[in-house]
Amino acid sequence: MPLKEYRKKRRFDVTPEPSGEKAAAGKPKHKLVYVIQKHRATSLHYDLRLEWNGVLLSWAVPKGPSTDPSVKRLAMQVEDHPLDYASFEGTIPEGEYGGGTVMVWDIGTWEPESPDVNAALEKGDLKFILYGKKLRGSWVLVRTRGFGSSSKPSWLLIKHRDQYASTDDITVTKPKSVVSARLLAQIARDGGGDVAKAATGDPQKAPSKASAPAKKRAKTAAKRTSK
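-> structure tokens emitted (227 positions)
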């Protein structure tokens, strides 16, 4: 059972996450699903998921994807997820595995550049093209050492140099859900989750002059008085 670990960690009479049991075998689709879910659980991270062999291969990316080819982002491989998880956006009850708020940050399809995906995964060097609403172009996942374990190895997610490469931080410039245009705090509020916790995963506004500490305001006033 490819989803045994996924199901073992979750109580589906409590969490709204899909169990994957209703997924129909059907005929193979021409295009493979790709999704990144922004997840404010114990800490903020982004879950990269690629459809392969009837499941979503999954990696947790603590700092999120970077479109800058010079930046290598740690990606910890986690348990496979069911295909219908790709559309899941909402709140997981606190106390449950992964308790917190989940956003569909990007979604689309992917295409392997590696001629043999299974061999590439075994080797630890998977090259692929993303056709998402936010992320596009050529990428690579490279297995590395120093983190993780034999069951949950660590990889590096790297953007290849192409017309979609950029030094802009896309996690900051495009923070909203691609399916609902909501921030994490809004998703939590609508789902009865922890809004304050979810909000820490949203871009923080720079403090305005009106909200400057009283000490700073007093110092400024003192300078004006002494003139």
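The chain has one domain: 4-226.
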